[in-house]
Fold this sequence. Notes:
4-stranded antiparallel sheet; 4 strands; globular; alpha+beta; 2 helices
Amino acid sequence: MLTYVYDTYAKAKDGRLMHFDVIIPQKDDTKAIEYAKEWLNSIGQKEVEVTTKQCQFCHSEVASPEIEKEIQQKGYYIYKMEGCP
């Protein structure tokens, strides 16, 4: 499955910077932001701002079986990097 990776930064309520990728099955800036907000809400960061400044298309890649499975279940995959729980 070809996926599209959106490099995303969000400032947590406690001030720390969270860096993560939103990986989705189509190139769609609006969906990427929607999924970033959904994930942030799920980790207790409901009020965190995410716009096209913080969530930008980076590249496309073939998904691993693990990522593909989660995309099929939830519509997206979050690859956590810096500052993420």
